[in-house]
Amino acid sequence: MPEQDFTDYIDRIGGHVGDRTPLYQAVAAHTGARRVLYPGSYLDLAPSYHWPDVTYLDADARARAAFQGPDATTLATRHKQYPEQPRIAFVPGDYTRTLAELPAAEWDLVISLYAGPVSEHATRCLRPGGWLLANNSHADAGLAHLDPRYRLAAVLHHRSGHYRLTTDDLDRYLQPQRPPHPTREQLHATGRGTAYTHPATAYLFRLHPRTRET
Ligand SMILES: C[S@@+](CC[C@H](N)C(=O)[O-])C[C@H]1O[C@@H](n2cnc3c(N)ncnc32)[C@H](O)[C@@H]1O
Q1: Within a domain: 121
Q2: CATH code, domain with 202
Q3: Within a domain: residue 188?
Q4: Pick from 4, 22, 85, 137: CA 20 to 30 A from residue 48's CA?
Q5: Is residue 213 part of a domain?
């Protein structure tokens, strides 16, 4: 029953990392994004509560079964915070392959949470000046930090069920506890984020406005 699959999953991740709703709400308000791309989404449908047009990608058969059917749209329609009908697309398969087949420079925001080096494959799909929301669990925040096409634009802190987005003192973030910062190759080898002196729950990067697709 896909609708239950989505709600069970959203409740479960809520228990681990806090309700995603205020996270996405804060990012939606700050960025003004409309078209969102979410590689490695699994069953996290919550972005469709805040953005009217979301493309989800995942290799997992359960995600594919849940998204391919009317329940995702029904659930999003019930929870949506915007006036129009939700548009939900799902691309099955390995994102290291499927993202290369999507149109370039079309999306406003990429979400990268606990799903590997998403930014390395999804950046070509972001429009110039678009946004990347990443955490550092699988080192994607560190990889974006090393990517000259991005600059850190804000960080999000999670405490007691609330997310606080701040643009203050951004220079102190992404500084390794043990310099120097690992290289891209080192981050790939470990697949884990490095420890930072001032960690944030999530990082919001902005793609350079004159970036050309690669
Ligand atoms: C730990 S779950 C995280 C799900 C969701 N992003 C969240 O934060 O709740 C990681 C998901 O990424 C997917 N994933 C990881 N690597 C992938 C790849 N190369 N292509 C497609 N999906 C991938 C897995 O199938 C899994 O569903």
Answers
A1: yes
A2: 3.40.50.150
A3: yes
A4: 137
A5: no
User: Is the predicted pLDDT of residue 17 greater than 90, yes or no?
Assistant: no
Q: Is the CB of 118 under 6 A from ligand 1?
A: no
Ligand 1 centre distance from Cα of residue 136 (Å) = 14
Among 178, 123, 169, 166, CA closest to 148: 123
Asked if residue 54 belongs to a domain, the reply is yes
Q: What is the pLDDT of residues 32-53, one digit of tens each?
A: 999 999 999 999 999 999 999 9
| Residue 42: partners with Cβ closer than 8 Å, 6 or more residues away | 9, 58, 60, 62, 63, 115
Cα–Cα distances in angstroms (integers) from residue 197 to residues 86, 178, 205, in the given order: 40, 9, 19
Q: Whose CA is nearest to atom 6 of ligand 1?
A: 41
Whether ligand 1 lies within 6 angstroms of the CB of 44 is answered as: yes
| Total domains present in the chain | 1
CB 100 within 8 A of CB 189: no
Average pLDDT for 107-128: 98
Enclosing domain of residue 195: 4-207
Ligand 1 atom with the smallest distance to the CA of 95 is 20
Question: Running DSSP on this structure, what letter comes out for residue 207?
Answer: E
Judge contact between 173 and 200, C-beta under 8 A: yes
> Ligand 1 centroid to 41 CA: how many Å?
6
Alpha carbon of residue 96 to chain centroid: 15
What's the first-to-final CA gap in the chain, in angstroms? 40
Cβ distance 133 to 109 under 8 Å?
Answer: yes
